[in-house]
């Protein structure tokens, strides 16, 4: 029995927090398993497939309205085999049926509600359905009865509908990806950048209208395009967007980090769930913005995002959790929003008024009578209003935020989905490495190294990886994004902890990825391996959704790995992927931001920076030059102890011919296009050479 004495269904034996949320529904839920699929075939019953995730607000709404209702559950149980899937555990299932939803309805999202024949072919699909007819949607009970009646009395019509959808899906799949070119050059980046700028919102920042998503990979590409061309409007737009997001309600001003998206075009009212991948990508983006602009406010946002991840999202074992819910105590945003009275109750009245002026807090509020915090007035303006110095106002605001955080900690927190997903943990590792590089905060370095160690011990089995870790167990064979993201993460960690082990493991995983995921006909990678369960479609991850596409991250990983190993297969496979999708990226950059980032590295050619050091004090100065003084997204940099370089020289071609000159505290090599600088031993020399590199020259 579950809470309140309710009977538990089969989901009670699952580890996914999302599935466990539905374990006491009166619906006779199955997880996705052969038992459920066989039962549908044996009894000739249609399948109702419901896909969602733990932090999804509308998933909770549909559960409360429909799946917790005894009458609705009775209709479902009598007429359907009901299967519940966590999209974060089984993105392969979700992606296939999301494509169906986009094909049939023109849109997608969660909860995803799919009606299948026993052979898993969809014949009706939608997203959220209310219990009663509203929003122009049919009430779920009425829909259930209609589809059950249709399946019983007119299977031929159901078959025709399923045939039509499958035909469309086949055409949709074949026509979606192919747009090959043999020319990989700057012109593709030019076209992609200009088209992306055409979609830019010059008033509010970001792209398009509401809802507004951060689209981190597109903004990263615009930074790279600025690096390539020095055209300032690309940099200006990115920084403008980052300011708008940082000042808006999508940013958690009290606890750090970012919510999933804004429901309006001004970044004011968020959808309050917090996802690990968003925060990892945005920490990377704000760190890069700091590198290119040197503006401390971007470093501050990067750090508060990383600090949020360390405070709220790390498990006791050192991995990162998936998400935090949008709701608490049954209300969306309750944990994050404030009334004016709440501030007056916890701090001095004068200080509270200043905080209210800063955060735009009013009696009436801006969200269901409460206030989503956002920066309404600058510190300079508030100083004039209250006749104080900017330093005093800044101090009051900082103190007030600490008081508010302490008060907020006493509230009921949103639920946390504590399963660890390999791909998202890999993004978090990369973000922690970048955070260490721009801040020198050892907490970030340690978090990255510890997460890698845990993954190697718990989610790896030879060259095979697993996607999910929960309750002491690894499960579900890893998908393409898991492999590609993790290879990149290993290479990132190698740059700050240069042990051959990381490169060797990256090679093993890359070889496994190419062996089990590669499509010889299309010359790119499937999302599932040849060891995975076969669905109605073997899908591919080509374009960015909420995270970078698997193929773009694989191309990036292979190009970086080629630079270290000089193994030509990695370069040729990278080129195949880029050539197959470069034109699509140029024509539709919004969906291919990370493919353009990979193409940028290919066109620019990696810049190799090797620092061999024996003096910690001096190497800190070199780190400042390499990681903080210049924005070099094409750089592949490694800082290695002089006592260890010989071992790396013998095992990793990247280090061939690079030796430490004794008598010097450090030796730096800067190489590009098979040309290296002379060994550098002076900080000013290093700065001079990198200055030339920024101007696209190397002497």
How would you describe what is shown here?
By secondary structure, the chain is of the alpha+beta class. Helices cover 52% and strands 12% of the residues. It contains 26 helices and 22 strands. Strands 1-3-2-4-5 form a five-stranded mixed sheet, with helices on both faces. Strands 13, 14, 15 and 16 form a four-stranded antiparallel sheet that branches. A four-stranded mixed sheet has the order 20-19-21-22. It starts with 16 loop residues before the first helix and ends in a 5-residue tail after the last helix.
Distance between the amino and carboxyl termini: 73 Å
- The best one-word shape is globular
What's the mean pLDDT score?
94
**CATH C-level name of the largest domain:** Mainly Alpha
Strand order of the largest sheet: 1-3-2-4-5
Work out the number of β strands: 22
Q: If classified by CATH, what would the architecture of the largest domain be?
A: Alpha/alpha barrel
* pLDDT < 50 runs, ≥5 residues: none
Largest beta-sheet characterization = 5 strands, mixed
List the total number of helices: 26
Could you say how many structural domains there are in total?
4
Helix content: 40-55%
Our Rg estimate from Cα atoms comes to 26 Å
- Say what oligomer this is: single chain
Hey, roughly how much beta strand do the residues contain? 5-15%
Structural class from helices and strands? alpha+beta
CATH topology of the largest domain: Glycosyltransferase
